[in-house]
Amino acid sequence: MRMGYYPGCSLLGSSREFDESVRAVAAALDLDLVQVPDWNCCGASSAHVLDAKLAAALPARILAQAAEAGLDEVLAPCAACYNRLVSAQQALAKNPAFAEEIAGITGAPAATRVRVLNVLEVLDRLRDTIQARVKTPFGRKVACYYGCLLVRPPRVVAFDRPEDPRSMDLLAEAAGAVPLPWSHKTECCGASFSVTRTDIVAKLSGRVLDAAVKAGAEAVLVACPMCQSNLDMRRPEINAHLGRELDIPVLYITQALGLALDLDPEKLGLHRHMVPAMPARA
Amino acid sequence: MSRIGVFTCHCGENIGATVDCAKVAECTRSVPGVVHSVDYKYMCSDPGQTMIKEAIKEHGLTGVVVAACSPRMHEPTFRAAVAQAGLNPYLCEMANLREHCSWVHEKGEVTTEKAADLVRVMVEKVKHNQPLHPIKVPVTKRALVLGGGIAGIQAALDIADAGHQVVLVEKSPSIGGHMSQLSETFPTLDCSQCILTPRMVEAARHPNITLMTYSELEKLEGFIGNFKATIRRKARKIDEKLCTGCGLCIQKCPQKKIKDEFNEGLGNRTAIYVPFPQAVPNKPVIDTANCTFFKAGKCKVCEKMCPTGAIRYEQEDELVTLEVGALVLATGFKVMRTDKFPEYGYGQDPDILDGLQFERLASASGPTLGAMKRPSDGKEPETVVFLACSGSRDRSKGVPYCSKICCMYTAKHAMLYRHKVHHGKAVVFYMDIRSGGKDYDEFVRRAIEEDDVQYVRGRVSRIYRDGDKLVVKGADTLQGGAPVEVRADMVVLATAVQSQDGSEELAQKLHVSYDPYHFFAESHPKLKPVETNTAGIYLAGACQAPRDIPETVAQASGAAAKVAALFARDELTREPVVAVVNRLPAPQFSYCVGCFLCQSACPYQAIEQEEIKGRDGSVLKVVAKVNAGLCQGCGTCVATCRTKAIDIQGFSNEQIFAELMTL
């Protein structure tokens, strides 16, 4: 299977391990990822609150590039990128006049046919393959954390259930893990306050981790770079806020799958986490 | 030769201001066959009608055309007048000069010409009219009431009190319905069972009421006044005549852990059981799915214990056929289950209840005997959160309609809780309070002001368990959407009222319309609220829409009144505007070739098959036959018939062609 790939800025920087694990798992599942040529920033955290045209034009250019490269589908692993790409695409499809205006800015017609997929959507299609190729079952109790962005808002995303998503749980199960029912699957981690208001992040992410630990999880699985960095990188602040030390590791779903597929932990970027996540291999 | 009289009405200014009525009368006078044509300001008035009657006698009219308003309005008036003058009423027709002309056009010559054309069309039709005679159908004076809740009980009692026979069919082992499950009722806080059980007993004892519990309607055929109902009496596996209801079998049954439907799963029952202590009839049934004997072939404890030898393991379902004249549908409602709300804890947390479960918890006959104990550990809850509109008025995940009763029962629940746990805290999350009804708003105010129930306007986004507590997260929209977090011991969801399971199939079985949510549809939302589109079938209670007890009882009495009015007559008279299949002399007998396309097209099941037999009794031909009792005169069969063998009386092909050829 051949598919476009839009890593976005975070997967080249703070979340390198997500990029590494997505690529490694894709290769192991015979998924041919073709990077969108000359891609640009999607404008994720700030464009949509500053300038509606800019917020549409940035994703529009990325999609136009993909269309030009002959890509029908593009995987955007970062939840924020994914959300921006889909939202902008829908805004353009709904309003032809606006789409024309944006086309004037980007210099290319709106690529409304290119389908943008998030990482769960893509892996969901490959679930049977994953299950068949598991070598070392990931036999841990896990809390699958979707965050607030990955499956919402439903009218934009139209994937999985908005209040109680199941796709990551089913993937974890396919990899041999035991996904737990827990309360904070779709609560906010404090997302974009990661840098500016660490106190808010400590409070919100603290609640998420606390709930996961109380539910009996041995690891938290995520599919969003912001969730991961907040839960992992801000652990000292979280611990200070909670007043106790939590050492639960936060893994990308792709890392968990990679381990189950017996891929090299280094290639999955497991050594890059702040909270040690290198598994004691059974 | 026809002698037609034309009577053009001004309808005050309704027609007169736009159409030159005198001119219409004038130019109609010269139409062949017309012997008399006049105009008048109000034809429907007494002098107007007298004009028609006198003209019939004076001119020996063979047909009458009244050019006036809609036939919907005054056709019966003019037909009656014509009949009084000795002419068959179906030789009178109306030309609609109001809705079809004066109301939709400007004043002018063209408008007057159109009016004259409309009159000419009807004159040609009347020339082809035949005298018709009303159809008489007999009435079976026995009613069938489906559903033994308060709606069905009330309807049955009212019909029975009017002196008619009633068969009350209830699918569960006892009558009583949801009302028997309720603890107290709003706005009086009187005990639900205390006011209901006397009515249940009355229904059981009434000489005109036959109770068929643990029974379901299998099939319904026929038409108003003449239905044939097939009812399945499910096997109770006991002999009802021998059983005295002593309850020994129930005490000794070894299966004691079956989820109790009457207690909404909060309690347990045995495999041989009565649903609740005041059940009517107070005779047990064996739940064969859970009975040790039926599952494993051994046990028979109940048979050994029974002092009267009433147990009948071999008993089978029985089909009973009944002739009835009318039907009252009172099949009630169900509540949406809490597992529809994944964000509210999957419906798996034992301390998250729905409204009916809370009723059982608060009821003196409930699993805790009325003590406030939460299901998980039996502790008295210190804080209880009530969520109104769980699934109601929620287009994205639930149903768009308002469930109507939840505002009131939520206030009641909160009050009952506060009355039982004086130091407890009751919090109600609501969208807005809909307490329209006598003493209803006062009741809600009382909950807030006297019983200190805390009302928070806003929706709840999530409920999850944190150790011993349930965390309820919501927003207070009266404080700008400020987040509210309540740590509760128990949560009660006022889940949406929904139509009863299987109501779609039942509606199709009875040919009754239903809405997208499978509630049965009334014939007219304002003026025919208890009738359905099928004559002789009436509605009562929450099977039509969410409804509280007073409204249900009122509607049930309304439906009963309709049935009583129907049964007041020995025969029903029906308009003869129905389909007929032509008959010809031998050897054709009829143009009908017996393809029966009309039978599959007829929406009222009015087409039957008829054999035409020779003298020796051999079948010469099978042709269609219209059951005049069922036919509604819609004309679908006429359009379908390939050999033009069917006509609607009063709208025959000849009549329609005559109208068209005039233009």
What is the third-level CATH name, the topology of the largest domain in chain B? FAD/NAD(P)-binding domain
Read across the widest sheet of chain A, the strand sequence of neighbours is: 2-1-3-4
**What is the alpha-carbon Rg of chain B in Å?**
32 Å
β-strand percent of chain A reads: 5-15%
Q: Could you report the average pLDDT of chain A, rounded to the nearest whole number?
A: 91
Q: Which class best fits the helix and strand makeup of chain B?
A: alpha/beta
Instruction: Report low-confidence residues of chain A grouped into runs of 5 or more.
Output: none
Supply the number of structural domains of chain B: 5
Give the averaged pLDDT of chain B, no decimals: 94
Tell me the number of helical segments of chain A per DSSP (H or I, 4 or more residues long): 13
Quaternary organisation: heterodimer
Strand content of chain B: 15-25%
Full CATH superfamily name of the largest domain in chain B = FAD/NAD(P)-binding domain
The portion of residues assigned to helices of chain A is 40-55%
Largest sheet of chain A: 4 strands, parallel
Largest interface: A-B, 11 and 11 residues
Shape of chain B: globular
SSE order of chain A, as H and E? EHEHHEHHEHHEHHEHEHHEH
